[in-house]
Amino acid sequence: MDQREVLLHPALGKLPARKVLQCIFALDPTGPILHFHQEQVRSENLPTPGPTGTLYTLTDTPAAEGRERCRIIPPFVREFSVVDA
């Protein structure tokens, strides 16, 4: 995995994440894979110094109409990178 992806969740902190099409998946510390959409996050580069990649910050923006029918299959758990504290 060349680039790290991290979701900054207001309640759970930094979570390993992966973007698939317009979906952002994040690995909850208790095991479930959380599913958000690109309109629900703000994207920016991870801060330097550190690994290169993307930081997704969860916002208050709701998912777009029709997203409840999203059927994108989440990536395997092994596809998520480790997040530094």
Your description of this structure?
Strand 5 and strand 6 (53-58) form a beta hairpin. The protein has one domain (4-77). The protein is mainly beta and 85 residues long. The protein starts with a strand and ends in a 27-residue tail after the last strand. It has strands at 4-9, 13-20, 23-27, 33-37, 41-45, 53-58. It contains no helices and six strands. The protein has a six-stranded mixed sheet with strand order 4-3-2-1-6-5, with no helix packed on it. 0% of the residues lie in helices and 41% in strands. The protein is globular, with a radius of gyration of 12 Å.
Write a concise keyword list for the protein shown above.
mainly beta, 85 residues, 6-stranded mixed sheet, globular
User: What's the tally of helices?
Assistant: 0
Strand sequence of the main sheet, in spatial order? Answer: 4-3-2-1-6-5
Topology, number of strands: 6
Strand content: 35-45%
Question: What count of domains describes the coordinates?
Answer: 1
Note the main sheet: 6 strands, mixed
Q: What is the average of the pLDDT values? A: 88
| Distance between the ends | 19 Å
Measured as a percent range, the helix fraction is under 10%
Radius of gyration (Å): 12 Å
Pattern of helices and strands: EEEEEE
Summing up helix and strand content along with how strands pair, one would put the structural category as mainly beta
The best one-word shape is: globular
Low-confidence stretches: none
